[in-house]
Amino acid sequence: MRTPGRDQVATALPGYDVGAELGRGGFSVVLAARHRLIGRDVAVKVLVDGGGSDDPSDVPEAGVGSSTSMRARFLSEARVLAGIDHPHVVRVHDYVEQDGLCLLVMEQLTGGSLASRARSGLDQRATCAIGLAAATALGAAHQHGVLHRDVKPGNLLFTADGVPRITDFGIAKILETMSVSPSTGLIGTPRYMSPEQIGGMEIGPATDLYSLGIVLYELLAARPLFPRTLPVPALLHHHLSVPPQPLREVREPLAAVVLTMLAKRPQDRPASAHELARRLATAATAVFGPGWLAASGVPVKLPDDILEAAGHRIAATPSAGPPGLVAAASHGSPPDLTRASNGPGMAAEPSSPPADWTTPSAPGGAGAPGGAGGLAGAGGVAGWPRQPGEPVWSAARPGASPLAPPMPPGGGPAAAPGGPHPWPGMGVAGTGPYPAGFEGRRGPGPAGHRSRGVSAGLIAIIAVMVMVSLAAVTIGLVVANRGGGDDGGPASSPAAYAGEARFIPGLDYVSRLALGSDGSVYATARLDDTGQPVGQVLRLQPDGVVTRLVASTSTKVDEAGSLLIPEVPAEGVPASELVLLNPHGIAIGPDGGVYVADSGAGRVYRITPDGRAYVVAGAGTAGETDDDGLAARAYIVPLGLAIAADGTVYIGDGPRIRRVTPDGMISTVAGRDDRRGCEGDGGPARDALLNDANGLALGADGTLYVADFAENVVRKITSDGIIRPVAGTIGSSGFRGDGGPATEAVLTSPQAVFAVADGTLYIPDGTNRIRRVGPDGIITTIAGSGQTVSDPDGLPATAADLEDPAGLVVDASGALYAALLNSARLVRVDPRDGTVRVLLAS
């Protein structure tokens, strides 16, 4: 890589003394410099020309391109920074091009990075203050039509006085006035990338909020969002599909805000950076008390409404004059507002930036309705104000609602002090049934999911309105299941459980389902009844007894806090000793064995009927990526799972579908490891592109169905190896198309698919609905209101709020069972009257 010498830089900047190197990135080096006349210390960012490098390690990051495009990006960064005047965005002083050099002259930030401060430990109040500064800075960038796309601790630096500033807009996306084009490559840092960046979907302000959410999560929890040992493909898969562990290191109001930032769908995150700042300030005040911002010791300058939400008292304007600063004393003492003699709220010439700043906002100013960063204003999309000439956010979140956002993973009373005690009387290894005290109890659902004022009269009205559609749903369920079975078990098998709810303390999520030949419903889940989340497989027997198939012991972590992948020798281990990290996919083999896809461990396990566990595929982080070879040595990130009658295992492995034959050999059925997309319909599946094979199902005729979470489609691979579309529209997400061809409908993030003997498919839709595709290819909605407000128990199916449906099965009676991932429930839709009943909950 050719790096310009200091003499070259000094020649291009004759007014500066150029000093030592401060740091470097993939395509730039930063030098210290000092202006000779005014004595200002600056940082000079120099574009490094990698175009002529002979070093094969000097490979541009994905999506960067040639030296010409790098120069264009560099100039774009200069223009971005020059156009944003915000106290928490790095300031640019000049941009110079001379003799092939591209130089960006910025303020010098000598206070270190957030990454370095985090290594030394950071107070939670300081973390929240930095979060407010970053959110308002991003809001200012978004107001100029700019997305950062690489928010991370290394790009948040501090001045010598400790003022945080966001830097490195080098890969910022300036949105065109008419539309937002999907990114053509992976732009950003994988550890902090949003699902929509990874999936090549449209991006918007919520993209930056997801990345900032990871930063806040890791600072508050003092641990990574996902294990540091994950290779990049596995890490990307986790961003797309694996819910984060609960944020139990902070109290619920604050944890809820951060986890909402980490929602997989952009529309489920805060509506804007300003709205995020308001929520974060309010939650921090509820947790730490009204003096927390001053006590944080972090100098910040925030809009008035954010300061008020943070419990900071705003000084009254004593006289006319330029807006000034309010100095909030540090260490928790109240701000001294008695020295406001130099204008509104201005402390008398502080020698260093005060611990808390505010600039009183004029009407229409930052933070005011209709102003920069505000939430109101004509012409805006999803609450964004719009000024003349401002770009239109075509990536605005569809279906945005003024209602409170869905409860993030980990909510509910199980997380609260004083909640239910761990299961008593479970016996050695915890593989026995739940105690009788847990059977037959019914009560309100988890906090945040109870009915909010839904009266009996309203329910009755809803029931009448949906009766006709429910009749159709009921008939469809029963007829579809007659005459044969599928992977879930033969049609002649007993009906599954239909009784009272079972309550499982610490139930953190319920993910995928499988149906045993005896009518048992198997569910992958995660439990946190001991303070350390652990994966689990639950079995709900037809008589209502709930058992656990694997160990209840805690997972183990290394010195860095990353989860350790458990050792499983070739001869297997007792299932009571198997530790699961993030189990999702599940299927029942022809001999009754239970297969489990653990994406956290990078393995598929088989649990035999006699209670022994073996590795079917996956070697964890040390595996090989070749398409063919021994399955036990392969590197996989498994999620979807299906088992053929001959014991062949199909694995949804991110952008690929893998096949493991009974002799233990693995091969690729569809997709490529090095490229994601949704191409190739009508041709060989082996040549097609997939993005995220979240769910798999085998039809009675051997057709393999795949739910692609990132592409919002369901496709099928027929026995001749050809891949074809089944449901959904590539490049579109939302809810549309009921009553018409499924291939013309619009789905959102399907996590699974379930096939019955006659070819009917059931698809969980990310709009909080369950949809059915009949043998005639027509799609309808059979359950789910699209909302997440009320407890669904006892409501008609299409009026019930089903939060984040994932796994589905249909039993011999035609009853539909659905796992609600984020609300940690298993529900049943009665085939006779279409009523929803909760069967498992925390």
From TrEMBL:
Molecular functions (GO terms): ATP binding; protein serine/threonine kinase activity
Pfam families attached to this UniProt entry: NHL, Pkinase, TEN_NHL
Transmembrane segments: 456-480
Chain residues that bind ATP: K45
Signal peptide span: none
Phylogenetic classification of the source organism: Bacteria, Bacillati, Actinomycetota, Actinomycetes, Frankiales
Methyltransferase in keyword set: no
Key words, A-Z: ATP-binding, Kinase, Membrane, Nucleotide-binding, Repeat, Serine/threonine-protein kinase, Transferase, Transmembrane, Transmembrane helix
Enzyme Commission number(s) from the entry: 2.7.11.1
Gly residues bias spans: 364-382
Protein name (Swiss-Prot/TrEMBL): non-specific serine/threonine protein kinase
Residue ranges annotated for the Protein kinase domain, each copy included: 16-288
NHL repeats: 580-610
Region called Disordered, residue ranges: 321-450
Annotated CDD domains: STKc_PknB_like
